[in-house]
Amino acid sequence: MNAIPQLFFDAMSLGGIYAMAALGIALIFGVMNLVNFAHGEYIAFCVFALIVPSTDAVAVLFLGKAPALLLIPILLALGAAIAVASEFVVFRHMRKATPVAMMISSFALGFVIQNSLLLIYGSRPKAISLWPDLNKPVSVIGASVPLLQIIVILATLVVVVALALLLKKTKIGLEMRAAAENFTMARLLGVRANVVITGAFALSGALAAAVAMIMVTQTGVADIRMGGQIMLVAFIATVIGGLGSLPGAVAAGFLIGAASVILQAFLPLDARPFRDAFLYTFVIVILLVRPQGLFAAHSAKPRV
Amino acid sequence: MKRFLTTTAMVMGLAPAAMADDGDIVIGFATAQSGWVQAYDAPATAAARIRIDEINAAGGLLGRQISWIESDTKSDQAQAASSGLQLIDEGADMLIVSCDYDFGAPAALAAESAGLNSFFLCAEDIKAGIQGVGPNSFSASVLAAVQGATMAEWSTAERDVQTGYVLLDTTIEYNKGICDGFEWMFPKAGGEIVGSDTFLNGDASIASQITRIKSLEEEPDAIMLCSYIPGAASAVRQIRAAGINSVILNGSAVDGSYWLDAAPDLSNFIVPVQGSIYGDDTRPAVNEFRDAFEAATGAGPSSTYVYPGYLLIDLWAKAVERAGTVEASAVTAELEKMTDEPTTFGPRSFSDEIHHQNSAEMQIIEITNGTPGVIGSWTISEPVPLDVLLQ
Question: What residue in B sits closest to A5 (Cα-Cα)?
Answer without folding.
Answer: B211
